[in-house]
Amino acid sequence: MVWIIFIVSAGIIVLAAVRLAEYGDAIALRTGLGRLFVGVILIAAATSLPEVLTTVNAISQGEANLAAGNLLGSNMFNMALLAILDLVFRKRRILRTAALKHALSGSLAVLLIGLVTFFILADIPWRIGWVGGDSLVIMLGYLLAVRLLQRHQHVGSGVATTTEEIPPGTPSLGIALFGFGLATAALVYVTPWLVRSSAEIAIITGLGSTFIGTTLVALVTSLPELVTTVSAARLGADDMAIGNLFGSNLFNMFALGLGDLSYTSGRFLGVIDPAFVLVGLLGLILTALALVGNLIRLERRWGMLEADALLIGVIYLAGLWVLYQRGITP
Fold it and tell me: What pTM value is reported for the model?
């Protein structure tokens, strides 16, 4: 029965994530907000909601480290997806063709991840009520980042933005918004079933208590990002695909601060094991590498991968090995 639940829930998530990309693209075209902004903010938030729910559930059970590992580890996997994108679409060179405007969203993601790792280590005891001042700074930082991205979308580098042509058959704005909301609701409802069934399968197969088992379960929560990103790239919306990944890293850090609202026993960031800073730093390094790859636009390929995408993939795997050696589960 657990295998049936896993397969059915995975199928629903794949379908919902594909629709999320399609309706998100329609919203970007119909509203004129642009694929980059919609990917960074709207789709990133929607695909990250399952991780937020997993985090809140972990906090309610007193598992602060599980919550932190879920979000910080998701940052690592999101950047590894860039290497997967380059492998799947090896003729398009995704990082090179993406808009340079991703430099802002990537830089903001680096800033927020850096803030989170700093606050975990600094252990600043300032609070407002039961909520830590560090968490409030992180949440405020995300809201300011959204505002900057919104302004940058319209201002850019001083060059007037051009309206993207709307292809025939594109859903109306009303249908796109309704479909996007429905797909998001499906992700939020079904993902916990997928996570629970994958955890049970890990136990049944004997992997449940191992690093591999817990890592695989964590990767399952990133399935919406994986499917949505690949679907967006297949639609030709490369900016939306990459924006989703940078935006997910931004939203993950916002969710980490948001988790403090449901942790009433004190400062949430103050009870996270400092060892998890290593997970945060690996996510920071991988995000910075993706940002550099977007800026320098390397021409050279190594086998089927661009040099920057290959480096991201190698560092991701090496990072997992380091975490395995330290006994830390992302």
Answer: 0.82
